[in-house]
Amino acid sequence: MITKIALRNLTEHRSKTLIVGGLIALGVTLLVMGNSIMDSISVGLRHSFTEQYSGDIFIYAPVEDEGDLSIFGSFGTDGVQALERFDEFAGQLAAQANVQSVSPTTVGRGILETNQGEQGGSLFWGIDPTVWQHSFAQPLTWLEGGLWSGDAPSIALSIGVADALAEAQGSPIKVGETLLITVMGDNGIKIREVTISGLFAFKTIAAPQLELMSLVDLKTSQALLSLNHQQVIEVQLSAAESEILGQVTEDSLFGEATLMGTAEPDLFGNGSSLITPELSNESVVAEPIALAAHSSPGVAAHVTLPVQAQFAVLLLDNPADVAVTQERLQAWVDANDLNWRVGDWTQAAGFIGNLVGGIKLILNGLVVLVAFVATLIIMNTLVISVTERLQEIGTMRAIGAQKAFVRKMILTETLILALASALVGVLVGTVALWLISINGLPAANDIIKILFGGDALYPSVSVSAVLQAVSMMTLGAVLACLYPLAIALKVSPLKAMQG
By CB atoms within 10 Å of each CB, which of 65, 224, 455, 461 scores lowest? Predict the structure, then answer.
């Protein structure tokens, strides 16, 4: 019965119904479009990062200011620390639930020098080509060559870096040529020669650093960044090897010489100098042999270079469970007493991820402001509408209608009007987004291109945006009607009937 009366009242006061309904529909349209566009930006940017290089999970060593850290390094790459005991726990990490792949990564910046002596700068990631090929190769456009195979020192050049070097030397950079990479850091200057395996471009520029980002084999990057700390492992020797090594002692290698005194006859000369002009082949002792002098009988020290990484980039089987997986991995890290931090793609994205978060926060603030203003306008309109109906409400109360009945009637009117208008607003917003998505929303500048993940944004309707818009405007309309309703119920039936 109340519903029928509410519908009759809405049609009876058609002009006020259209005004209030139009305001609600406009608010819902703006909220659906604004939130859907922002959700499309977030989804597009997340895909641009996770599918190209950041992965779903980003593991890193803690730094003093984590806001300065990203997969592109920090302010000064020397501040990026290696993940402790990564070589020991990499296998266990890859075996965790929902983890599809683990890509050890290093980051640095260096000076590239061509065979003709021309130089240019480049950022670089040190990668394992096998893992990278499986995880991140699809978003790359190969203009020439490809990722390397094998252990030879190699580099795949970003086309932006290659073009700059080609312009400097006056001739194209070709696959198969060699370059020198020089990295200067706290541990001195490191130089390595690498062979160009390919030239590539990222399909979308989700961050400006990508135009200068090249790919280097992991071992070479470890050496350039001084991450290849030696590890000594004891191995069993045969009887013949033990007999040979048993003849080598610390005294036979170094005698009793000091830098300030004389030396007894030893491998390095006749006591007059620590180094002689020439050494016989028998005098040259390799590093493992020297280390073996301190080993147990029958055991020699074997020097290896463990896999060192500054970051571990993880792809998940189910990216929708990234929050749960992130929490579970951090618990596993803490249980193993590892000084690691587990973040998501926004941590890997650095300031770009923070920028998106800040823009979304601003837009959410604007959404609340729009809803608040719309509520005030609706409230004022309802005050006028209810005031005009005071005589009608007084008559209803005079013939026996209780305050609760009147309250339910007006609230029902408001809910019907709000939901119907919200449905219209959703339809208008959906059609508008569809029209925009046909040609895309063009990016006006480079910053917008980064946010859009390309030259244009093709938004789609977000279910969460629709639910949020409908719930906010419906709640606003209900709250807006409470004040005029309170005014109407305070007036006595007699005065209301007298107008």
Answer: 65
Sequence-separated (6 or more) residues with CB below 8 Å from residue 305: 219, 222, 228, 230, 231
Element (H, E) at 338: none
What is the distance between the alpha carbons of residues 311 and 340, in angstroms, rounded to a whole number? 9
* Cα distance between residue 42 and residue 453, in whole Å: 10
Q: In residues, how long is the chain?
A: 499
- d(C-alpha 87, C-alpha 222), whole Å: 13
- Residue-level pLDDT, tens digit, the chain, 499 residues: 778 877 777 787 778 788 888 888 988 898 898 888 888 887 777 777 777 778 899 999 887 666 667 788 764 444 578 898 898 899 999 999 999 999 999 999 999 999 888 999 999 999 988 888 777 767 788 999 999 988 899 999 999 999 999 999 899 999 999 999 999 887 788 999 999 999 998 877 667 788 889 999 999 999 898 885 444 445 455 565 555 555 545 455 445 544 444 444 443 344 433 333 333 333 333 333 333 333 444 444 444 445 688 899 999 999 889 999 999 999 999 999 999 999 888 888 777 767 767 777 887 788 778 778 877 887 787 777 777 777 777 777 777 778 888 888 888 888 898 899 999 999 999 999 999 999 888 888 766 776 776 778 888 998 988 998 899 888 888 888 888 788 777 777 766 666 5
Asked if 216 contacts 242 with a C-beta cutoff of 8 angstroms, the reply is no
Supply 360's token pair. Answer: 């979304």
Q: How far is CA 69 from the centre of its chain?
A: 11
Dump the DSSP string for 416-433: HHHHHHHHHHHHHHHHHH
Q: Token pair of 263, please?
A: 């030396």
CA–CA separation, 416 and 386 (whole Å): 16
Which single residue is written with the structure tokens 């683990």?
102
Contact 125, 220 (CB under 8 A): no
Phi, psi of 336 (to 5 degrees): -95, 10
**Chain centroid to CA 422: how far?**
35
Q: Which of 316, 478, 345 is nearest to 407 (CA)?
A: 478
